[in-house]
Every structure is written in structure tokens, then in C-alpha cells.
Design goal:
Elements lengths: L6 H11 L3 H7 L4 H9 L7 H10 L3
Helix pairs in contact: 2-3, 3-4
Length: 60
């Protein structure tokens, strides 16, 4: 599961930077839909794209 930054802090980081989750996902080559699922806790993020997204966000 996720051990790094809490989701609330990550969402605050996006808001503070003025970047949407969708824009961040596209810039990093990830699916915006999957990125939203990772942020809302709908994925375990053990392997695959969801794990890569969690690592890139500093959540894992």
C-alpha cells in the first residue's frame, strides 16, 4: 500500500502549483483517469502503472 505522502497533501501540492491532475498525468505519460484513481485510493498501487504513478507522486 502507500507509505509516502498522504493524498490530501498531494492534492494541495497540485493546487498550490496551479497544475491540474490531468495536466500532470499527461506531462508524465500517465493516464489521467488512472492518476485520479490512485489519488482517490481506488488502487492498491502494488505494480504496473498505478505503482509508477504513486512513485512519481511521492506517495510510495
Amino acid at each position: 500500500m502507500l507509505d509516502g505522502k498522504p493524498v490530501a497533501i498531494t492534492r494541495e501540492d497540485f493546487h498550490r502549483a496551479g497544475v491540474t491532475v490531468s495536466d500532470w498525468a499527461k506531462q508524465h505519460g500517465f493516464s489521467p483517469r488512472l492518476t485520479y484513481e490512485v489519488l482517490r485510493g481506488g488502487r492498491k498501487c502494488l505494480r504496473g502503472q498505478s505503482a509508477l504513478i504513486a512513485e512519481a507522486l511521492g506517495m510510495k
